[in-house]
Amino acid sequence: EAILAGWKRFAEDLANYTPRPDEYEFVGVAPDRLPALHVAVSGRILASNIAEWRDQTLEILAGIPRDLHTDQDFANAEETIKWAKDALDRIVVVKDAVLSQMPDVEQMFRSLDDIGEALGWTVKDLDGLVKVRKDNIRLEMVQKAAESVRAHYDALAQELGAYAPTMPSALLAELGASIKGTRTAKAAAAKLDSAVAQAKIAADKEANRLRTAQRLFADAAARVGVDLWPDGPTLAKTMDEDALLGVIARRVNAHRSQGSRPTAKASKTLTLDAICARIAPLGITKAGLAQLGFAPLPDGGYLEADFPKICAALVATLQSAAKDEVADAA
Fold first, then answer.
1. Would you state the pLDDT for residue 146?
2. What secondary structure letter does DSSP report for 16?
3. How many structural domains does the chain have?
4. Which residues pair with 303 in a beta bridge?
5. What is the pLDDT of residues 33-77, one digit of tens each?
6. How far apart are CA 210 and CA 214, in angstroms?
7. What pLDDT score was predicted for residue 322?
8. Do the domain assignments include residue 229?
9. Residue 316 lies in a domain
10. CB 220 within 8 A of CB 252
C-alpha cells in the first residue's frame, strides 16, 4: 500500500514538475589577493634570561594543584592567581621595553595589530551576516514547502468539504526538522521534497478513508430516506470503518423503531439462515446486512417486515455494481 501510494504521488508530482533554479546556490568570490607579507630584520638580543625564566615558570605551572578541597587549598589558589597576573604584567613590560629600543619594530607591530583588529572585526561581522542569511534561506525553503502541502489540503477541502482531512498543526516544525544537519541549500531542498511528498501521501491516505466514510453515510441515508448522521464528519475523523457501520446500524434501527407500531406479522423475526435461504443462490453475512443498514435484534434475528427492504437494498447494490462495471469498461 505504501509503495503504491508513493508511485501515485510520484506520478502526480512528475506531471506538475517544473525545473527549479538553484536560487540559493552561488559560488563565492573573495577580494583580490593581498601582496605577500614580508619583514627583513637585522639585529640581535645582547643578553636575556628568557629561556631560564620560561622553563622555571612552566615547571611551577605544571605543579600547581587543581584538586581543591580545604580552605587552605582555595587560599593558595587565590595567591597563585595574583602571582600569575603579576607574571603576565611583567611579560608585557619586558615586551614594551624591548620594542621601545627598536622603534621600527614597534611601529611594525602596531601596524600588524591594527590590520589584525580590522580583519577580525570584518570576519566577525560577515560571519554573523552569513549565518543570518543562511537561517533565513532555510526558513524560506520550509515555508515554501509548507505552502505546497497546504495547497494540497486546500484542494482536498474543495472536494470533500466537511469530510476533508485536517492539516497537522506540527507540519511546519516537522518540515524544519527534516532539513536538520544539511549543509547546503541543494541538500535541504532534496530533504524537503521528500518530506512534502510524504506529507501529501499521508493526506491522500486520510482522504481516502474519509471518502469511504462519506460514501457509507450517503448510501445509508439514501436507503433510509433521511440523513441520520449530521455529525458524520466528526465521526468519520474519529472512528474506523467497523465502528462507523455500527453507528449506522444503531441509528437506522432506532429510527425504524420510532415509526408505527409493528403489526403481529411485522413483529415476526427471521434468522440469518432463513434470509439466506430466501435469497438463494445468493448469500449475505451479518456484517453485510449491517452495511446495508440492518442490524440484528437482541435475539439475533431480523424483522420479517424488513425482508422486502433487505431485498431492495441488495438489488440497488447489484445495480450500482453493474453500472460501475459498465462505466469502467467504457
1. 94
2. T
3. 1
4. 269
5. 667 766 676 667 778 788 888 888 888 888 888 888 888 888 888
6. 6
7. 76
8. yes
9. yes
10. yes
